């Protein structure tokens, strides 16, 4: 079956997260992607768990395998002139070159954009770095966990009375590739019309800040600096996660207006406390939110999260089960949509991957 990027040839110099995840979308939709790696400085994902059966090895990381299905790999010493010659041959073959090193690294090897154009005039070079290729901090090295702090996420994550909380993952590594693929598609369309390539410079910091836009704009317009709200929302009450029946089982409930509140009260059987004037309006519920959450949990604790979900959604109230990895993996909706791909790895055997999050009727992803 024909797929979107059939015939597209990619020389992928990137490593760790952002670059390989970007080229993963290309490889799963038909592109031929060759990873240029090093035996002297192994990609950090190859040494990051989880490892199949707990056995450590550069070919046993599930993390690395997930980011790199459908790709070829070649080890080249780019500090050796002969290695550079091999790299240049790959660039001459390629439509796209991807790299996510600290700015200046490719130039030191003689592989900057101007050098690439001399080899292949139609080349598209996609560069993604911490803070972009220009500006006073362009050459500041770092990883996604640093950018989570720089972008402001830590100041908005956690409990109001607590310290700033880091996210559990390098969030910027996960969101930047979406922008990168969109930019690359635009560059490919431009090349198809003009026969000219171009340089794409993506800042991982600026990409991640898009997901804090309301808070940043609020400061720009009103001079107001937001803070940590825990599970609460300025525009909703109740809004949180509530303990349910079972060992460490929880559900999420969100009520955004007074009509939804009336529906919520009907769902839980209109206990006496729901008629308390302290909970009559959104404003009053926000003022008495701690008490409100305690009373709601006294109800949810009698049901499993799945039972709460069913009751709430049947009544038209937004709710969801708080799932762990096992719950997600066994979710019937995700299984029906083939969200998980079981691929066979030469060394570690069957290995689960996350599939494409969208379906296309004519050009679906494949592994």
Describe this structure in words.
With 367 residues, this protein is α/β, with parallel strands linked by helices. It has two domains: 9-211 and 347-354, Rossmann fold (3-Layer(aba) Sandwich); 239-322, formyl-coa transferase, domain 3 (2-Layer Sandwich), CATH 3.30.1540. It has helices spanning 18-28, 62-67, 81-93, 105-108, 113-119, 144-151, 171-194, 204-209, 213-222, 258-267, 282-287, 289-300, 305-315, 325-329, 332-336; strands at residues 9-12, 32-37, 71-75, 96-99, 124-129, 199-203, 239-243, 250-254, 318-321, 340-345, 349-354. Strands 3-2-1-4-5-6 form a six-stranded parallel β-sheet, sandwiched between helices. It has a three-stranded antiparallel β-sheet with strand order 7-8-9, covered by helices on one side. The longest helix is centred in the middle third of the chain and has 24 residues, at 171-194.
Q: Which helices and strands occur, and which strands form pairs?
A:
Elements: E1 9-12, H1 18-28, E2 32-37, H2 62-67, E3 71-75, H3 81-93, E4 96-99, H4 105-108, H5 113-119, E5 124-129, H6 144-151, H7 171-194, E6 199-203, H8 204-209, H9 213-222, E7 239-243, E8 250-254, H10 258-267, H11 282-287, H12 289-300, H13 305-315, E9 318-321, H14 325-329, H15 332-336, E10 340-345, E11 349-354
Parallel strand pairs: 1-2, 1-4, 2-3, 4-5, 5-6
Antiparallel strand pairs: 7-8, 8-9, 10-11
The poorly predicted ranges are none
> Structural class of the secondary elements?
alpha/beta
What string, H for helix and E for strand, traces the elements in order?
EHEHEHEHHEHHEHHEEHHHHEHHEE
Q: In the CATH scheme, what's the topology name of the largest domain?
A: Rossmann fold
* Top-tier CATH class of the largest domain: Alpha Beta
Number of helices: 15
Share in helix: 25-40%
Which superfamily, in CATH terms, is the homologous superfamily of the largest domain?
Crotonobetainyl-coa:carnitine coa-transferase, domain 1
The backbone outline, from C-alpha atoms, is elongated
- Rg over CA atoms: 25 Å
What proportion strand?
A: 15-25%
The mean pLDDT is: 95
Strand order of the largest sheet: 3-2-1-4-5-6
Number of strands: 11
Largest sheet: 6 strands, parallel
- Which architecture of the largest domain does the CATH hierarchy give at level 2? 3-Layer(aba) Sandwich
Give the termini distance in whole angstroms: 12 Å
């Amino acid at each position: 079956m024909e797929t979107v990027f059939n015939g597209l040839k990619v020389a992928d110099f990137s490593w760790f997260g952002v670059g390989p995840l970007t080229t993963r979308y290309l490889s799963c939709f038909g592109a031929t992607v060759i990873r240029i790696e090093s035996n002297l400085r192994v990609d950090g994902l190859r040494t990051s768990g989880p490892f199949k059966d707990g056995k450590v090895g550069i070919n046993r990381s599930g993390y690395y395998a997930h980011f790199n299905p459908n790709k070829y790999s070649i080890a080249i010493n780019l500090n050796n002139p002969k290695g550079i010659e091999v790299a240049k041959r790959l660039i001459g073959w390629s439509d796209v070159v991807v790299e996510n090193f600290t700015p200046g690294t490719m130039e030191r090897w003689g592989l900057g954009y101007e050098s690439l154009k001399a080899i292949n005039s139609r080349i598209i070079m996609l560069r993604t770095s911490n803070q972009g290729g220009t500006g006073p901090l362009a050459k500041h090295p770092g990883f996604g966990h640093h950018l989570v702090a720089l972008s402001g996420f830590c100041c908005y994550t956690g409990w109001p009375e607590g310290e700033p909380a880091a996210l559990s993952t390098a969030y910027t590594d996960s969101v930047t590739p979406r922008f990168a693929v969109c930019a690359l598609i635009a560059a490919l369309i431009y090349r198809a019309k003009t026969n000219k390539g171009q340089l794409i410079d993506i800042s991982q910091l600026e990409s991640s800040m898009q997901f804090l836009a309301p808070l940043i704009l609020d400061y720009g317009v009103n001079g107001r600096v937001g803070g940590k709200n825990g599970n609460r929302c300025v525009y909703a009450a109740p809004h949180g996660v509530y303990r349910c029946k079972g060992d460490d089982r929880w559900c999420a409930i969100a009520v955004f207006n007074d009509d939804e509140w009336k529906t919520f009260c009907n769902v839980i059987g209109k206990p006496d406390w729901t008629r308390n004037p302290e909970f009559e309006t959104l404003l009053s519920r926000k003022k008495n939110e701690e008490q409100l959450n305690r009373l709601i949990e006294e109800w949810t604790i009698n049901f499993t999260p799945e039972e709460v979900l069913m009751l709430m959604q049947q009544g038209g109230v937004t709710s969801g089960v708080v799932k762990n990895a096992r719950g997600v993996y066994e979710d019937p909706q995700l299984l029906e949509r083939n969200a998980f791909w079981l691929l066979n790895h030469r060394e570690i055997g069957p290995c689960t991957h996350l599939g494409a999050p969208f379906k296309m009727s004519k050009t679906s992803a494949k592994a």
